[in-house]
Amino acid sequence: MNNVVNRYYDxxxxxxxxxxxxxxxQKSDVIPxxxxxxxxxxxxxxSELNLESIKxxxxxxxxxxxxxxxxxxxxxxxxxxxxxxxLFRMKYEFFLPPKxxx
Length: 102
Known about the structure:
Layout: H1 2-6, H2 11-24, H3 31-45, H4 56-87
Helix pairs in contact: 2-3, 2-4
């Protein structure tokens, strides 16, 4: 789980995450244009960081990994809710989002 949190402390990885989320939103068709626009912006506004250009295959690979993590995480949350509410007859204090079409 540490890797899930740590990647948000890396500027480039955070940008890849934001672009990859367009797949989750069923907007994969805009990803190539976003990558092109992002790379242009990074090279102009953040040239001093010497960031490597973002590539489409990198975004796709990232999203596949991210998808697996969040599917597993949501499954475990639903399991936790089931155990607490059905087996232990406790109130479940957290809101769980509906299943996301991915």
